[in-house]
From TrEMBL:
Location of the protein in the cell: Cytoplasm
Semialdehyde dehydrogenase NAD-binding domain: residues covered: 3-141
Active site: C149
Gene behind the chain: argC
Protein name per the record: N-acetyl-gamma-glutamyl-phosphate reductase
Enzyme class name: oxidoreductase
Provenance organism: Thalassolituus pacificus
Amino acid sequence: MIKVGIVGGTGYTGVELLRILVNHPDVELKVITSRSEDGLPVADMFPNLRGHTDLRFSVPDVQTLGECDVVFFATPHGVAHSLAEDILNTGARVIDLSADFRLQDAVEWEKWYGQPHGAPGLLPQAVYGLPEVNRAQIQEARLIAVPGCYPTSVQLGFLPLLENNLLPEQMLIADCKSGVSGAGRGASVGSLLCEASESMMAYAVKGHRHLPEIRQGMERAAGKAVNLTFVPHLTPMIRGIHSTLYAQAPGLAEDLQALYEARYANEPFVDVMPAGSHPATRSVKGSNVCRIAVHHHTHTGQVIVLSVIDNLVKGASGQAVQNMNIMFGLAEDAGLKQVALLP
């Protein structure tokens, strides 16, 4: 059994990790931390876990965490900087769900996250945990940076075109909608029911902090600079991301479906839907699946890719567990076979 610790278990990604891991056939949960909730039974905060775990929150302790095989960080940005190296030095592996190690350029990270990077020396060993791209590196990794939710949806949607050098120099567009849980569990006016319900709004139009992460991944896939306009929107739903992606790919109308089906044929968590499909966010709610449909607009010649994920699962905690499975040589879908919730 793999001994698992979680740092920061009181947010949405933390409870989602717990929901997945309590039923994982190869995992023993050893410790979950929260400074503010020290001593509180986890099931008192999250009643859905009653009968599944008797763990109590505790203050983070490197020695205790180091007795685990792997430690997940489900913490705000900047927290993993101060603890990750000490935990790695114990021999435990680290899977970080925050953005602390996603960008390879520490200066770029500081620009977007508004604080100095606390562990630039760890960046060279951090592996970007998008399994559909970096599976081999994940197998050998000691430090994983789990991709963000928007970056997961956008990159998986564009990858087949980028990897095959099918996009000429142009401005690509990612028009993305997210549920309110993407803003986290902390109280904020914008996340209140009266503010977010029955309304939709764009935000961070001039530049969202996920933009450099998306661009970094796309440029690695393309082997060249990529021009991308990324506009996120807040929608009145709890979970889900819907990304509508636009590109010009001349002469590909007949081959698009085959291209996407071939690229993801052996990927357990990417579902390329039949031609003409329109995937809905509810079709992935609670699951680790990214559903993709690809269209060719006959009038404009544009390729339009529709990509949907659950932002808390494939966009966060589920993908983190997928990385853990790969790291430890387990079945990649272990603990991740949940069918999406309908309705």
